[in-house]
Design a protein that fits this description.
It is a single chain. The protein is built from one helix and eight strands, in the order H-E-E-E-E-E-E-E-E. It is an alpha+beta fold. The relative contact order is 0.23. A four-stranded antiparallel beta sheet has the order 1-3-6-5, with no helix packed on it. Strand 7 and strand 8 form a beta hairpin. It has one domain: Immunoglobulin-like (Sandwich). Helix content is 21%, strand content 40%. It is elongated and about 80 Å long.
Length: 126
């Protein structure tokens, strides 16, 4: 009798563990998974746009991306929008004529689940 109860308890614990493990990915927060140009990249020509790809869709109304130029000031004339082909990617359009040098991308994003994440990375234009 004790063996049956013990086996039922083990089966119940295993079932609870399996159901709980399936929900773990939904508890993860959005994170930046790639960028173009990539972090620490050295490019020959300033791209017309940057692409930041997150692990999940973000809410553009509550997100911010700022590009800091070689002079230490925020680059004006930028805009960003969600990539219509991939809701987890953001396209940041840059103005023409930016000088060569080191650029820093400061970003803060709010995921669809309401969690805010932020980060920074740099790239160089030679």
């Amino acid at each position: 009798m004790h063996t049956i109860i013990r086996n039922l308890a083990r089966a119940a614990a295993l079932a609870i563990f399996c159901v709980g493990a399936q929900t773990l990915p939904s508890l993860a927060h959005a994170e930046l998974v790639s960028s173009v140009p990539a972090a620490d990249a050295v490019v020959e020509v300033m791209p017309e746009a940057l692409v930041l790809t997150f692990s999940e869709s973000i809410e553009p109304a509550f997100s911010k991306i700022e590009i800091v130029g070689p002079d230490g000031l925020a680059v004006g004339g930028t805009s960003f929008a969600i990539d219509p082909a991939n809701g987890a990617s953001v396209i940041v359009t840059l103005p023409a004529g930016l000088p060569d040098g080191s650029y820093t991308v400061d970003w803060a994003a709010v995921a669809a689940d309401g969690h805010k994440v932020s980060g920074t990375y740099s790239f160089d234009v030679k």
